[in-house]
Amino acid sequence: MGKIGLFIEVTEMDMRIGLFADGADPFGAQADAYKMLVEILAGVSAVRGVMLWGAADSHSWLDNFPPFDSEAPNHPLLFDRDLKPKPAYHAFKYGLASRQPVGA
């Protein structure tokens, strides 16, 4: 719990691949960003939940919402259109594993 007695829940998180398009490996960079963010959140005891804006890229809201639809497909989630785990999935899972049990 935070200093003022509140818990934190991160909701509706995703990272569109266009944010990493300038690099040599956009999907690797996306995975690194997910891992870094989740490790930071895992280190904050007041954080009680992290929720993504969907599970698979095939259901991303970004592909149908201006102005992001102009960059579709956005590939923002942890699973690809065929429900196969992307590098971001493994990075997210690794980041969560860094969390210490509550009370530890």
Could you please describe the fold and organization of this structure?
- With 104 residues, this protein is α+β, with helices and mostly antiparallel strands.
- The chain has one domain.
- Helix content is 27%, strand content 12%.
- It has helices spanning 26-42, 87-97; strands spanning 8-13, 47-52.
- The protein has a two-stranded parallel sheet with strand order 1-2.
- Strand 1, helix 1 (26-42) and strand 2 form a beta-alpha-beta unit.
- Helix 1 (26-42) packs parallel to helix 2 (87-97).
- It starts with 7 loop residues before the first strand and ends in a 7-residue tail after the last helix.
Q: Sheet with the most strands?
A: 2 strands, parallel
Helix content: 25-40%
Distance between the termini: 14 Å
Number of helices: 2
Keyphrases for this structure?
104 residues; alpha+beta; two-stranded parallel sheet
Task: Please give a quick description of this structure.
The protein is an alpha+beta fold and 104 residues long. It is built from 2 helices and 2 strands; from the N terminus they run βαβα. The protein has one domain.
List strands and helices in order, with pairings:
Blueprint (H helix, E strand, L loop, with lengths): L7 E6 L12 H17 L4 E6 L34 H11 L7
Parallel strand pairs: 1-2
